[in-house]
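Issue 218. Parser rejects a valid record. Input:
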Amino acid sequence: MRTLDWANQTTAHPVGLALVAVCAAATLVVRREYAIIPLLIVIMAIPSAQRIVIATIDFSFIRILVMAALFRAFMKKEHLGLKQNSPDVVIIIWMIWGILAYGALFGTVSALITRTGFMLDAVGSYYLGRIYIRNVPDLRRVMMFLGYASIPMFMFFSLERATGRNIFAVFGGVPEITLIRDGKMRCQGPFAHPIMAGVFWAVLLPWLGSFWITKQIPRILLIVFGVCFMGIVLNSASSTPLMSVIFGVVGMMMYVFRSYMSYLRWGLFLLLISLHMVMQKPVWHLISRIDLSGGSTGWHRYFLIDRSISNFGDWWLFGVQSTAYWGRGLQDVTNQYILEGVRGGAINMALFLLFVAVIFKIIGRALRASRTSTDKWVMWGAGSILFVHCMNFLAVSYFGQMQNAFYLMLGASVSMAATIIADTRQATMKSAIVSKRNIELKKGAV
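Output the parser choked on:
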C-alpha cells in the first residue's frame, strides 16, 4: 500500500492533527539542537498517508513539518554558514529537471504541482539535514533520540506480531490487519510498507557501530538500541531490510581494506562483467535468487530491470506514464534507479546517480581529512549507510516516510563531511601561520 493510494483525499485523525500541531509549534520554539526532533517524531509515529488536501494540493503531515522547519531555519537565519558544495548544486539541478520532465511527460499543471510537492519533501529534507546535523555531536544527539524512540517502537511492532493487528491503523493510512505472506506476519507499524519500516531502522545500524567503536555513546545503551533496531527489522519479515543489515556489516568491515577500496571496486566491476559473459542469463538475474525471509519477489525485480532495458526507447527522454505494459506486475517499480528514469527519463536517472556519486566523493574527502578516530568512523559509517541505500535501490524504491529519512540523512552526511574538511583546512592554515611566525622569530633572533 503506497502513499499514492491516499493522494488527493484528506486523511486526518484528531490525535494525528493534535500531534502534528504540537510538533510544528515545537519546531518553531525549541533550541536549535532539537529543531529536527519534531520532524523525526512525525516520520516515526504518524502514517505518511495522513494529510490535509487544500485546493487539490496535498499537505501531508510530514510535509507540514518540513515546511515548518524550513520556515524556522530561514526566520532564525540558521541556514547561514552553509557553504555550497557539489551535492547541493546537483540536487537543485535534479529537482528542476525532475519537475520540468514530469510536467512534460503528463502535460498537465497538476503533474507539475505533484512533482513540485515531491521535490519539496526530498530537497527540503536534504537541506534540513544540512542545516541541523552539521557535526558529530549533532548526529550523536539524533542517534540517542532514535535509539530511545526505538524501544517503544519495538514494543509496538512486537504487539502487532503477537496480535496480528496494527494499532497505528486508527490514524488511517495503514491496514488494521497485519499483512501475511507465506505464513509470516509482515509488521509495518506507522510506516507505508513493512519493507520501509525495516529499512528505516536497518540502515542506521552502521552509525550505531561507529559510536560503539568510538565509545561516544554508552555501550549498554547501544546494545539496547541495537536489539530494538534488529527486532523491528525481524518483525518486518522482509528480505530487503535483512540484506540492509548484511550490507551494513560488510560496509563497516571494509574499513580494514580502506586503502584498497579502488582496487576492490574495479575488481567487483570486472567480476560482474565476467559473470555476465559466462552466465546463460544476464548478471542481474542474480537478484532473482535472493530470498532471506521466504516469499521474496526477487524474480520480479530481475524482470523489471530486464524489461526496462528492453523498453529504453520508450522512457529515455522524459520517462513513461505507466510501466504496466512492460509485463505482469511491472506497474510496481521496485527499483529506485529505474523509477528515476520512469519519472524523468535518462537525464533524471543520470542526475540521481551523479548526486549519489558526489556524496560518496565528499565523504571520501572527509575521511582523508579526519584528524580524530571519531570523525573517521562516523564518516565511514556514513559511507556504509549510503552503500546500503545503493544496494537497496536494486530491490526497492523508497516511498512514504523513508524518502524523507533518506534525504535527511544524506544532508547530514554532507554537512558533517563539509565541517570536517573545513576544520582540517583551518587547522592546517593556523599551523602554517604559526610555523611561519616561528621561522621569522628565529631569523630575527639571528
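Fixed in the parser; the record now loads. DSSP finds 16 helices and four strands in the chain.
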